[in-house]
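[job 4417] fold queue: 2 targets
>>> target A
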Amino acid sequence: SAITVNNKSVTGFTDLGAGAYKVTYTIASGDTSRTAGTVPASVVLTDAAGNTSAAYTTVAVNSLAIDAVAPVISTITSNATTPGILKVGNSIIFTLTPQAVEPGATVIGSYNGVALSWSTANGGATYTATYTVSEGDADQLTALQISGVILTDSSSNASDPAAGTDVLKTID
């Protein structure tokens, strides 16, 4: 028997009886992304005697959609672009811009050892976070750049870690 989903051969399916089969398709990097209802599937069955059925093909697998594209972070910028010193109570605002609008995405990133809380006010066109210097934060005698920021889209695809390069302020 042969089953293909999204033009890839799938193995390890289970016969549930009464003409029903169960198959697990795992999305992999490089798969073709598809909108809901456009994932092609084909089934050809072979019985124990070697008889083969005609192919049953469909272009809609329930409401299945495939998102096989990880988001890309275009830039991470800040409002700390002039030299100076940040003291307790001063803040830096970071703005992450994805290559494409990413509604429902999440961002993980910290600055100076402090986890940042990222949010969007424009449907995923940009994400922002504010770092405020607090008593006990690490001093930085040279400008510290934000790094290791990861954007995860609503399908759980994660970007490569990204960094900013424009912070010119030190931290006291």
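>>> target B
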Amino acid sequence: MTSSGTCNAGIDALGRIPWGSHFCNFYQSAEDLAECVVPFFRQGLIDNEMCFWITSEPLNAREARRRLLAQQPDLSEREAAGQIQIVDFADWYLSSNGSITARALNASMERLEAALERGFSGVRMSGNSFWLERKYWALFSDYESRIHAALRNSRIVVLCSYSLERCTARDVLEIVKHHDFALSREPHGWQRMKDVTP
């Protein structure tokens, strides 16, 4: 499946971004996280995209839904129509034995195919890595690398969120390597940090 063109990220610092973008943000608080991810999903809902928000502390599924509902009053109707799902990280990333599985990557592409068949414009996803224990970092880095390659030329955009409190300097470098660009929260708002040279 190939695609070209752009979609509206819903984030002022970005504007329109290419389909297939896989980017990340680094946050310090629940407010930072919500300030970036809520507009990202609100724009996806407005633009007839299927949305998947994979949550973890500091915004669990219930709190994430509450914050999005404050900006998108018809959220319940959109959930009922299957346009958006807000799920806990364990239901998305972890198998029953507590390990990261390839199922998460496969599910992303399957949902894209289903979304296009149902007439949605594309898919947007976001996952928060706060849950990630140190023992999973190597596996998760491999997952990020594989999803980065899989998204190319597809009508999907993915925003991965990382808590600065849980990342070392080496982690930040590894994370940025597996994304097209990164956002950081500056005093004046979100700012695009870097682009990967092709």
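[job 4417] complete. Note on B: The chain is about 40% helix and 25% strand.
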